[in-house]
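Why do we bother with holo predictions? Because pocket geometry can differ from the apo form. Keep that in mind while you read this record for S-adenosyl-L-homocysteine.
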Amino acid sequence: MVKLQIEARGIRDPGVLSAMREVPRHLFIPPPWDRDAYADAPLPIGSGQTISQPYIVALMTELLHPTSTDIVLEIGAGSGYQAAILSKLVKKVITIERIETVAERARTNLAAVHAKNVEIVFGDGTLGHPPSAPFNGILVTAATPEIPEPLKAQLTEGGRLVAPVGSRSIQDLIVIERHGDQFREEQFGGVRFVPLVGKYGWEE
Ligand code: SAH
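The structure, written out:
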């Protein structure tokens, strides 16, 4: 998976590549789809939600520029796989999930891989997580019409936020980097995520 799907498409960050080699992706996918865990595709994880294609997980992680002292917030815990990858690269990961059964499953999956520096929070991630802010990095893994203002406000100086921004059906992968009150923006092409549902996202 790493050689053919991730390295071959230009992901170079050695930390990201080794995290993708270390975390057993099949432990995050329910049967019968776990058989395809290392395929080049997103897969269902129940409750109408999906785990992203491995390459997209790697790309978003690399774009975050993670370092070992970072505190990172993820919106959309899903299976917990992206949080498990991040947990190998940063000091602490907080991941928020709005569907309680999905959050419970993420908790079980992350315990199975002994990811001890991940906290799973049940709730609306478009509000961020003020008790743990500010964050060096924020990863939004659901499609949003625009970047929720509370998330921008919870970035550190120089902090980076990666998110799929666009319509419910198709989005652009956006990175913003905070410099004072300014946010430098870059775009990284078309992606497809399930909707971010919440106060600063889409309506139910
Ligand atoms: N990162 C996940 C995949 C995310 S799928 C993984 O590695 O498997 C998107 C997830 O975002 C879904 O589980 C969905 O329920 C959740 N979600 C959608 N809107 C949300 C919100 N406002 N707050 C928190 N989670 C949300």
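The chain has one domain: 2-191.
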